[in-house]
Amino acid sequence: MNRSHLRKLSGLKSGLFWFLAVVITLASLVYQRMTGPTYPVRGKIEVGDTEIKYRLLRTHVTDADARMEIDVDDADIGGEIKWRRFKSNDPWSTQQLENQDGSLVVTIPKQPPAGKVIYEVILIDKSGTRYELSDEPVIIRFKGHVPIYIVIPHVFLIFMSLLLSTRAGFEAILNGRKSYSLALWTLIIMFIGGLIFGPIMQKFAFGAFWTGWPLGHDLTDTKTAVAALFWILAIWRADRMGRGRAWIILAAVVTFIIFLIPHSLLGSELDYTQMK
Question: Which of 33, 100, 112, 227 ranks highest by number of CB atoms within 10 Å?
Fold first, then answer.
């Protein structure tokens, strides 16, 4: 096989590995979008002969009350909300839902950053039959507004680091010459996106730059630090000659596993029982 054919084969393999890395990254993005404690609870329920769709919020900014509308298109369908502050000694409060032009309006009072409210919404038909919209109460967390110029680079760089991490892992498995440089770029992008922009986002949202280990139990902060640590070890133990490739593979696997942990799991939260 001549050099031209070898170069073509190498280019095809490289293209295939980039394609697989992109697929894995996009799949992870979709998974993160569909899981975790911050994305709305969606569904539909049959009330009599009417199918009603609903969307219950699990995150909201501190600037205003959380407001949701449930289209019922039937004046005979009413409802109520039961709620209390999460991690508090508050009794449950029950309020009737206001019907505005065919929509039941659900309102949850705004809370300080990291404050949570646990709530459940019940629809009631004209016969008095009650329909709970969720199998268990929903928890909504309030956060400060994060500027879009912080959110976009943070999200882009975090998923770019997963893309480079996956590609570096493939390169290291087949003893490719670019595994070390890909590992280095993974660490750089992860550091900027996760350990610079990440704490800035935390500060805007919850008033603290770092709430992970050892200062707190926020898994988002902690898992980013763990991934970065493994890539630091990989860069230290590997070299451009291909030695230490196992460390790059290990770092790529750890990063992939970390991205399977839902975003904002065990995130910042207020304990109202400890507040005056």
Answer: 227
For the chain, what is the mean pLDDT? 88
- Is the omega angle on the peptide bond into residue 214 within 30 degrees of 0, that is, cis? yes
CATH number at residue 78: 2.60.40.10
Pair (105, 26) in one structural domain: no
Do 22 and 100 fall into the same domain? no
The whole domain housing 154 covers 3-34+146-274
End-to-end alpha carbon distance in the chain: 77
Residues 150 and 264 occupy one common structural domain = yes
Residue 53 to residues 5, 42, 118, 164: CA-CA distances in angstroms? 58, 8, 21, 40
CA 197 – CA 192 distance, rounded (Å): 6
Tokens found for residue 244: 């230490």
Could you give the number of structural domains in the chain?
A: 2
Mind listing the pLDDT tens digit for each residue in 179-221? 999 999 999 999 999 999 999 999 999 888 888 777 777 778 8
* pTM strictly above 0.85: no
Model pLDDT for residues 140-172, shown as the tens digit of each residue = 999 999 999 999 999 999 999 999 999 999 999
Q: Which residue has the higher pLDDT, 75 or 225?
A: 225
Q: Where are the alpha helices (DSSP H) in the chain?
A: 3-34, 148-173, 179-195, 197-206, 219-237, 245-259
